[in-house]
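Model: Ready when you are.
Researcher: Fold this.
Model:
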Amino acid sequence: MKVAIIGGGPAGLYAAILLKKQRPGADITVYERNRSDDTFGFGVVFSDATLDNFEKHDLPSYRRITQEFAYWDDIAVHFRGTVHRVGGNGFCGCSRQKLLLILQERARELGVALQFEVDIDDESRFADADLVLLADGINSRFREKYVEHFQPEVDVRANKFAWMGSTRPLDAFTFIFQETEWGPFIAHAYQYEAGHSTWIFETDPETFERAGLTGLNEQESAARMAEIFSWFLDGHKLLTNRSMWRNFPMIRSKRWVKGNMVLLGDAKASAHFSIGSGTKLAMEDAIALAEAMQNAPNIKAALEVYEHARREEVEKTQHAADVSLVWFEHVDRFWDFDPVQFAFGVMTRSKAITYDNLKLRAPDFVAEVEKSFARQVRGNGFDVDTNKPMVPLFQPLRLREMEIANRAVMSPMCMYSANEGVPTDFHLVHYGSRAIGGAGLIFTEMTCVARDARITPGCAGLWNDEQEASWRRIVDFVHGNSAAKICLQLGHAGRKGATKLMWDGMDRPLEEGGWDVISASPLPYFPDSQVPRELDRAGMNAVRDSFVAAAERGERCGFDMLELHCAHGYLLASFISPLTNTRTDEYGGSLENRLRFPLEIFEAVRAVWPSHKPMSVRISATDWAEGGVTGDEAVAIARAFAEAGVDLVDVSTGQTVRDGQPVYGRMFQTPFSDQVRNEARVATMCVGNITTADQANTILAAGRADLVALGRPHLVDPFFTMKAAAWYGADGAFCPPQYLPGKEQIFRNSVRDRQDLEELRIKAKPKTRAELKAEATKPLAAE
């Protein structure tokens, strides 16, 4: 077999090593445009888990690499005169040049041919090769040459960054957040060998301009950075090596394979430096390709296996990198945070690290986070313990005069089980059991303000006396048997009305028994959906009056709070989104105009809703579709409602148009809650694939939301919150007297179960290489 590898970086060299080990008789040549000892950048960083992977696949190169590494466990966050150190992370740094020389040496040992200073721009010279690896880096010529085939998407990010070095020794992976007269600068720094450290400087484009960095050469830029960070560099110089400021390109390629050619490393996909994953991804690409070649019957099949099996892991890493880079791009959102909360946000920014696993590795740090959160709660008038505080999920919250005992919320979820809008015994059990189960706040499903405002024939309503009586029964049960508060969510289906029950075909139009639907514009949801009537002023008045009447009924029912549903493509949302609002009158066009009618409804409802009771609004913070609402517009939307008197923004996303492309994942909507909360400066509730109390604590402690709504977890476990209270020892959680023996038992058992699990996790966690090295160099005790 003949293999040509274009690009002699870590991806190309490691692929050559692994393929040559598999097939000693193969003819493998690596072609590199630079000299053998050329390199750009300074150090590379790997986690212990990545090194474990290297150890498994090629022990000789692994041993040589680890002999050259600098090891550390801590991450140090410097912010506003404080430093917080978080241990147990397991990182290793190495000179990029030494890494390349080690891989070159190992490749030669195995019989790989290495050709340097050879510039390849035409693969036709390898017509006799069985396999061609395109590992020519982030600016890949071949990816661009065959751009129509590979179909790369390049997202050039806003922040400016420059890669430099220093002789300043470091004993931790160090983040420095430096305030200047021009704006914030960030340094990502780590030691990669004795006396040498990597420094990546980052800032937003406005700060970059104000600081006068535009047009400076490498030495001038280094001098400016050395001046800004002089207090930390302590006399050590900054070193340059092609250290020009640039913007990071996030690259995703629709295809990785063309015939017998395959993209590897940054040529196919890039991940932001803030999670230190570039070289890791490149070398793990080589591992994945070698594994595919080992087991597949031929090269074509191997490349198919490689692309399909590897893509998921790469995209997961890229998603984490995306979330991380956005945090750094918008660090100004958190600049007024308490420093310990800020540091917690740094640690949990990509969602890979959560509250519980951070508490295992750095219990003292998380204890400070808990105290900081409790101090904020105490500052809002609650007499809570700040020395031994409860976890954030079990801290109280006040909205106007409504006090919520904890931050766990049962999300509004349509049950499609009402009878002509009348809630049934099903609803009594559904809401009552979740309230008894301990949730601080219960949301009703979207309750429709008129018969023709329903989504489906099974939707609940509040337009007549029978419905009001049924809802009052539910509210009375919740108040009489739990400590939960209950919020009425009011909405109008708009163009998504007259559809089938969810389990019969969600959003599909009724085949019979339907009703006329309305919307901002006459645009059907599906091509075969009913075309809605464009709402005129008389229709707007009727809709407004139905909302007001339903709110008045809600007050008579005794609801503690009211939410206006302005999301998910329903009537009010259809005015807000430009994808569903094509009007040319004063209710269309600009965002101000598109918000006019939803704000009118909100203000009319707010006027009749008691002033001591809070109101929230649910919004779709993005339509997940080109030309739709964006996160930045969501901030403006939230501000407009806040000015009108909203107390909480329930931040959801999407469901506006049927061809939206959501990016799902754990806590996938939380970044939008984060943006709205910390830019609009309004309380938020986050929702969306949040499944554990651990995740809820992570979100709250990092200041990304004030309440956490959980939907599906509550569907299968009415006592989700009570179980979480037992797990975290929140023994003040309310429990009906009938259930007290069960509460006492689960609280006793949970103490032991938590201790057992934590001990098991600690025992199962391998020692980091930094710990092993420290043990190996520790002097033997005298006998």
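Researcher: Now this one.
Model:
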Amino acid sequence: MAQGTVQVTHTGTSRWRRRTGEYASLAAALEAAAEGDVLTIAPGTYRENLVVERAVTLRGPEGSPGSVRIAPLDGVPLTVRASAVVQDLHVEGQDAAAPALLVEDGTPELRDIRVVTRSATGIEVRGGGRPTVRRCTVDNPAGIGIAVLDGGGGVFEECEVVAAGQAGVAVRGGARPRLERCRVHHAAGSGLTATGEDSALEAVGCEVYEVRGSGVQVTGRATAHLTDCVVHRTTGDGVTLDTDAVLTLADCRIHDIPENAVDLRSRSVLTMTRTTVRQFGRNGLSVWDPGTRADANQCEIFDSTGDYPAVWVSDGATVVLDSCRVHDVPDALFVLDRGSRADVVDSDLSQVRNTAVSVSDGATAQLDDCRIREAATGAWFRDHGSGGTLNNCTLDGTQTGVIVTKGADPTVERCTVESPAEAGVYVSAGGRGSFLDCRVTGSGGYGFHVIDGSRTTLRKCRTERCARGGYEFAESGTAPGTGGPVVEDCTSDESGGLAPPAAPEPAVQTTGHSPGLLGPAPGRTPPAPVSEPEQEPRPSRTVLGELDALVGLESVKREVRALTDMIEVGRRRQRAGLKAASVKRHLVFTGSPGTGKTTVARLYGEILASLGVLEKGHLVEVSRVDLVGEHIGSTAIRTQEAFERARGGVLFIDEAYALSPEDSGRDFGKEAIDTLVKLMEDHRDAVVVIVAGYTAEMERFLSVNPGVASRFSRTITFGDYGAGELLRIVEQQAEEHEYRLAPGAPEGLLEYFTQLPKGPAFGNGRTARQTFEAMVERHASRVAQLPEPSTDDLTLLFADDLPELP
């Protein structure tokens, strides 16, 4: 595109300026223009470095967006130092040391400008610059998208950073911009970042997503205020605060975060109001270090995708949850380390797979008027110096309501534990605790179970309908000064007062079918397992044929056949009186979800049964939640029970790396691993164990557990399916359900699977099946409108039935 001319419309009052002028360069036009003049730029490419120092209007022709390119070979393409209006320009820069558009002073208005550049910064505001930037876009894969520096400010409305090689928006050096309804995505650094004393960022109605780093990062005494903003699909933390940072989140939504949704450290302060946090891989809210504080009011944290506590408070930090909801998470609240504190008021903690509230290492937690529902453990005060208060709380549908161990000393007042599967309150290993006016109803075990001479105080407590009894005090009496519990004015529906102390008995029942920590109720015989009729194993040739029929997995099939051949030849050599090579049958399966690991494990078990290596060949699939218990000693029991269920077959442990998290210092997963290794050694011929998970995570798991690694003979890697293999799965699904692919549909499916993002959420075979199901639903919506559909109408799936790409 050649350079055009510039039409200058003069508005001055001098006679010699009462005319318009046309100039061959932008520099000449700017030199001739006076305050208030309008410079209309003809379409073309201008290799000039423009400096606007008067309050003029600089614009491209109406109705021709992108037709005017400001594209010098180096330097800053466009510098604004006055309260000018600049609009409808396409700015391109090539200087890695300079911005593409620089505002240094004044209050200019920048409208509908597209910056496509490979510069240090797309748009940079500094010093006295206070622009209003509307509907501008920045595409700068080499540097920062928008930078506001050195005391600069301004308002950015409906702007978009479509790509950035570093941060999407960077604020530092005391700058104070405001973003309204902006979008920042595909940045190689943080989406929004503010750093340095007196720096402040305000964002309203903005969206940050698809960034390779933190969505929002505030550090070094900077402040930020986000209202009605969305942060999602990052590769790092959703929101990060560090070193005296201050952030307010109001009515925000943070989701689809693989790491911590919100992470605070080093005396940072966070205030969250009416904000939701969901689908996070580590902690929903993570707070560290003395002086660091997070206050959450009317917030919701839920739907964890990892195996970490939703709220983590450690190293002397403080968290306040007021009228909040935490649900559908592995653990709700963990408070660790002396000086750490959590205050929870009028909040709901529910659908918690493990522990709702865990307090350890000298930390403190205070819960007032809270509701804990459907958790394995309601509250666990773990060790010496750990304590706090539960006041007027309800714990409903837990395995165990409150656990106190190893010298912990909480105060529990006016609380109710309803329908626990095991004990309402369990105190052991020298735990203390004071329970005042508390009630346990409908327990599957004891109401209050105090063992090991724990010096617990019970006053005005009551139990009702407890299967094993209201109170059990093992290895101690009830009178003061005996070293055991102090019990005053406590009652049970079994009698008017407290029953005499029972004889000591083990805290953990180790019978094969124990329902939990405290074992079955006295006088109750556990039901015998229902036995199913034994079935003859299918011939190995038949099972191998089913394996061969699976789509793809060629390398996996070769590995399984090679292993099967080794075992078969070994058996034949033994029958011939020859030595047979020792073959370890335990396997490691690595790969992404949906690649057929469980299916192959099931077939492998059948093959071994057909060869007489295993008695039954059945598959028992478990994960961390099935093996790791919440009570001291219960993990070993769960692991033993899972191993027993798999006796004669295959024990398949999915996501086995979760048994050994990177921060495993306070985790019971190691106990499960140790128990499993011993069982594999003691019963080496009874069970085949297969551990499975993502490739990188399984490599780490095996590297940190040499005892586990030595038990496995080989690793089989399941690769992701290609587009053609996914198409074959859809074709199989269609044939199985009596559908047909119309002409053009296979090509449409190939194109669809080729373009489908292959990120962490990609499900391989599961994705193919979901695609088929979506096509069937769209087909049904279409055919339901036909008055008399033909057989072709009822069976043909077209390319138009494909769902939209995510």
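Researcher: Key takeaway?
Model: DSSP finds 13 helices and 66 strands in the chain.
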